[in-house]
């Protein structure tokens, strides 16, 4: 079966994670190389999560149209700006603590279209 014939699959053991935009394996994704996310949603979302962290909250930045190295560099700059630790996991930046307002302002200053998601 060819990749273009698998519209509903998001993960397969033979190919790994599938990009929702171009329907190719993430390693072969062409939409990220051509300007980021699929055209349907280019908004960066900043939310807060506590699930699986023993009640400790983290601010999560998702939807950034960046590759792994650029994402890691931006994460370092945002962590310094917030004065907090964090990590890059699954294409998302996680910053320890509730820094949503600061992150929204910083990302908007950098030219991203940002929305505060969640409560």
Q: How do you describe this structure in short?
A:
This protein is α+β, with helices and mostly antiparallel strands and 119 residues long. It has helices at 68-82, 100-109, and strands at 11-12, 16-17, 44-49, 58-62, 86-89, 92-96, 114-116.
Number of helices: 2
State the order of secondary-structure elements, H for helix, E for strand: EEEEHEEHE
Task: Report how far the terminal alpha carbons are from each other.
Answer: 42 Å
Q: Identify the overall geometry.
A: globular
CATH superfamily of the largest domain: SUI1-like domain
Summarize the topology.
Elements: E1 11-12, E2 16-17, E3 44-49, E4 58-62, H1 68-82, E5 86-89, E6 92-96, H2 100-109, E7 114-116
Parallel strand pairs: 3-7
Antiparallel strand pairs: 1-2, 3-4, 4-6, 5-6
Task: Write structural notes for this entry.
- By secondary structure, the chain is an alpha+beta fold.
- The protein has two helices and seven strands, in the order ββββαββαβ.
- The protein has helices at 68-82, 100-109; strands at 11-12, 16-17, 44-49, 58-62, 86-89, 92-96, 114-116.
- A five-stranded mixed beta sheet has the order 5-6-4-3-7, covered by helices on one side. The chain has a two-stranded antiparallel ribbon with strand order 1-2.
- 13% of the residues are buried.
Which labels suit this protein?
single chain, 119 residues, alpha+beta, Translation Initiation Factor Eif1, 2 domains, five-stranded mixed β-sheet, two-stranded antiparallel ribbon, 7 strands, 21% helix, globular
């Amino acid at each position: 079966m060819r990749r273009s014939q698998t519209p509903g699959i998001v993960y397969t053991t033979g190919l790994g994670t599938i990009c929702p935009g171009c329907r190719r394996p993430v390693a072969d994704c062409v939409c990220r190389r051509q300007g980021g996310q699929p055209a349907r949603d280019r908004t960066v979302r900043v939310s807060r999560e506590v699930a699986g962290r023993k009640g400790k909250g983290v601010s999560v930045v998702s939807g950034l149209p960046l590759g792994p190295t650029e994402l890691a560099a931006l994460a370092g700059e945002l962590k310094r700006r917030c004065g907090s630790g964090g990590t890059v996991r699954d294409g998302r930046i996680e910053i320890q603590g509730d820094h949503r307002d600061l992150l929204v302002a910083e990302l908007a200053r950098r030219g991203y279209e940002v929305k505060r998601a969640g409560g």
